[in-house]
Inverse folding.
């Protein structure tokens, strides 16, 4: 998921934005991040055959195809025995305030694949609260607990894990080794607090010396305007997270540098695809080569490549990211609550279906409204799309398998 530095900036949404108040050379306190969109209308009800909560992965439906003696047990063969509803829930990241994580207990009990923490100051007992929440996860499938801990003005839990400067500062003042070392320290504390995924690093090539805001989603969030610097810094940050046992999510493919607008607030376009291939894509290629486990797709239209937001484009995800770059990890969307998504004619539930159809594995949306009800609406839309033949069940199984794989969860004995 620009204004001058002196102008107050609207906080960017979870997966793509934040309200910076500190200069790029400051590593001061965090700033609250507020959702910017209203929830979409619920989609149609779930199929009568879809249970309200998922079965244990070890107890597949008797109506589903079962592995034969000649078929090796894999996550995919196990997932083939799950209901469509259970598979759908695993592809959803549910937003929640870090000060009240128990609010999404019912969604987690129903099999949500992840939770996305919002806020600017984490409670001192966040770790124990998340441990209690994880006790409601059905089966042994793990739970992705994610947040935006980029650095600078976009940090959710610096009071617990320590602060990082803006990426612009890291890219200009630290060596890759220093970036990795400092990020590892923060990651280790995140892991100790039971947070296992960070929606960072931002590897967009921008370099403009401005605060990120409504017209520029990057600014100080970018390591540099130099592609080579961003590639090296991004890999260093990514490796620092991994060394601290936190899953990094490289974002925002195929690159937001030079975008016309911030997609959280309206339709936005990237630089032309012919330019992005030379300037914006190399940092993602470098991250993939270095073993990136997860990549976030932007909500921008890519001129010359897509006519819809990238997160809803099979050309962007399947042809370019999966095909030409050979990425085999988890693909997550930026927030589907973004105005760019609704401007393209999609409700959040319908956008979730299109994102999965296009090759995404996990969908996100903003905090606000009745989150449990909105989660159910998204799961119902996905389930109905499979039932109606608009989303191949094999694609849903593949997405669910990617969610399990990034957490190293094995369903087979």
């Amino acid at each position: 998921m620009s204004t001058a530095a002196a102008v107050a900036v609207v906080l960017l949404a979870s997966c793509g934005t934040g309200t910076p108040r500190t200069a790029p050379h400051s590593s001061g306190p965090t700033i609250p991040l507020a959702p910017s969109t209203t929830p979409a209308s619920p989609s149609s009800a779930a199929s009568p055959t879809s249970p309200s909560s998922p079965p244990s992965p070890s107890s597949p439906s008797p109506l589903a195809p079962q592995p034969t003696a000649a078929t090796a047990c894999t996550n995919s063969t196990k997932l083939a025995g799950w209901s469509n509803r259970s598979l759908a829930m695993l592809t959803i990241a549910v937003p929640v305030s870090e000060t009240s994580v128990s609010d999404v207990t019912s969604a987690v009990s129903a099999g949500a694949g992840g939770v996305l923490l919002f806020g600017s100051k984490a409670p001192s007992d966040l770790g124990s609260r998340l441990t209690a929440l994880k006790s409601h996860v059905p089966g042994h499938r793990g739970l992705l607990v994610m947040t935006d801990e980029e650095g600078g003005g976009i940090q959710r839990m610096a009071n617990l894990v320590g602060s990082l400067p803006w990426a612009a500062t890291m890219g200009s003042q630290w060596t890759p080794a220093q970036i990795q070392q400092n990020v590892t320290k923060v990651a280790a504390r995140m892991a100790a607090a039971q947070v296992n995924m960070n929606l960072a690093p931002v590897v967009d090539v921008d370099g403009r010396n401005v605060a990120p805001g409504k017209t520029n989603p990057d600014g100080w969030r970018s390591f540099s305007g130099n592609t080579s610097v961003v590639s090296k810094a991004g890999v260093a940050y990514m490796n620092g997270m991994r060394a601290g046992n936190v899953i990094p999510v490289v974002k925002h493919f195929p690159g937001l540098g030079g975008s016309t607008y911030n997609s959280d607030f309206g339709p936005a376009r990237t630089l032309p695809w012919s330019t992005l291939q030379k300037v914006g894509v190399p940092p993602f290629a470098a991250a993939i080569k270095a073993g990136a486990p997860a990549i976030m797709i932007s909500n921008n239209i890519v001129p010359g490549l897509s006519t819809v937001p990238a997160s809803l484009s099979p050309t962007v995800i399947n042809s370019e990211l999966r095909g030409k770059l050979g990425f085999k990890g988890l693909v997550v969307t930026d927030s589907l609550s973004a105005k760019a998504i609704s401007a393209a004619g999609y409700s959040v539930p319908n956008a979730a279906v299109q994102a999965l159809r296009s090759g995404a594995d996990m969908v996100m949306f903003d905090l606000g409204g009745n989150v449990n009800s909105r989660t159910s609406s998204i799961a119902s839309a996905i389930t109905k799309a499979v039932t109606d033949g608009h989303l191949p069940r094999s694609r849903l199984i593949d997405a669910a398998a990617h969610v399990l794989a990034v957490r190293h969860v094995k369903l087979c004995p």
